Amino acid sequence: MVIRKNMEYWRISLENPEPVADDYYIFDKIIVNDKNLIRKVERLRELIIAYCVIYERNEKASIDILNEIYKIIVSIDKIQYTEFIAFWKALDMSLSVFKKLPNQEFILAELLKMYCSRRRKLYDELGYSNITVQALYDSSASRKKGSAGIIKLLDLAGRILNLKEKEHLRKIEEIEIQDRGYFLPDRGDEALFKSFCERFGIDYQFGKEHQGKEPDIVLKINDHFFIIEAKHIKESGGAQDKQIVEIIEFIRYSEDLNFIYYVSFMDGVYFNNFIWTPPENNTKVNRQKRDIEKYLKENPNNFFVNTAGFKELLKDLSS
């Protein structure tokens, strides 16, 4: 195993832009061919129209319809991708919040009243289409990407290092004796990460200064440990800026231990700004780039890589 200087992996990253569409972050499942779901969606539409008409005439007579609507909403997977429940967002409500609240039937009745008065006639005139169900599902795809980055890194490690899922380390004794493996501090292995830091004298100052943030992956190869933080960044602004700062800050820290490495992994099209922004421009991107290079020079055991740079690092670890 021969690891090159960290600036070499950074150079490789800068020579290989991230793709516009990455297979690991594509969630294009088709749900409109789920016959049971569509049958329930269409039944829900019928019930809501009936409820709106009957409620105006006789509130008591609408109770049975309300109960059937409630049963569909709380029992059918993906029912949130319908016009009615999409409308809830306009009322500062969501299905996940609704399911945690008491008096759900009462709340549902209030939501139905607002839907009947604000949307039902409009949608009746425009017509209903099950394409709406698919479109609403597609629009929520970004919320499914929370663990995709970790899956991507582990898959790359599996392909290049032949790292197996069974090599997920579960105990401190396994970390001590196994030649290789991984664990996921931010995905259930928090206690193990704490024991790991105590056992090997790791300070992990980053976590202390960032509200206890745990790294995404710790990868062990022979006697070397790679503490990895991963971010999928598409654009700047708002919460994304905070994530960009975090992933850059991650390599500002180091340990007085030559077998501990900090790895910042950034994929997504935002990374390409580091490649395509003219160096003479005094922009936020270039300031970020200068910070990355400064921290890499100050901490030779740390790495900042995109997909291509990470692959090269893994290839060197496998040699």
Work out the strand percent.
5-15%
Q: Return Rg in Å.
A: 25 Å
Structural class: alpha/beta
The end-to-end distance, rounded to whole angstroms, is 5 Å
Poorly predicted sequence stretches spanning 5 or more consecutive residues: none
The sequence of SSEs as H and E is HHHHHHHHHEHHEEHEHHEH
Number of helices: 15
Number of β-strand runs: 5
* Count of domains: 2
Largest sheet, order of strands side by side? 1-2-3-4-5
> What is the mean predicted local confidence, pLDDT?
95
Largest sheet: number of strands, sense, barrel closure:
5 strands, mixed
Shape: elongated
Please bin the fraction of helical residues. Answer: 40-55%
Q: Topology of this protein?
A:
Elements: H1 6-14, H2 35-57, H3 63-75, H4 83-88, H5 95-98, H6 104-126, H7 131-139, H8 148-161, H9 172-177, E1 180-183, H10 190-200, H11 205-209, E2 217-221, E3 224-232, H12 239-249, E4 260-267, H13 272-276, H14 284-298, E5 302-305, H15 307-318
Parallel strand pairs: 3-4, 4-5
Antiparallel strand pairs: 1-2, 2-3
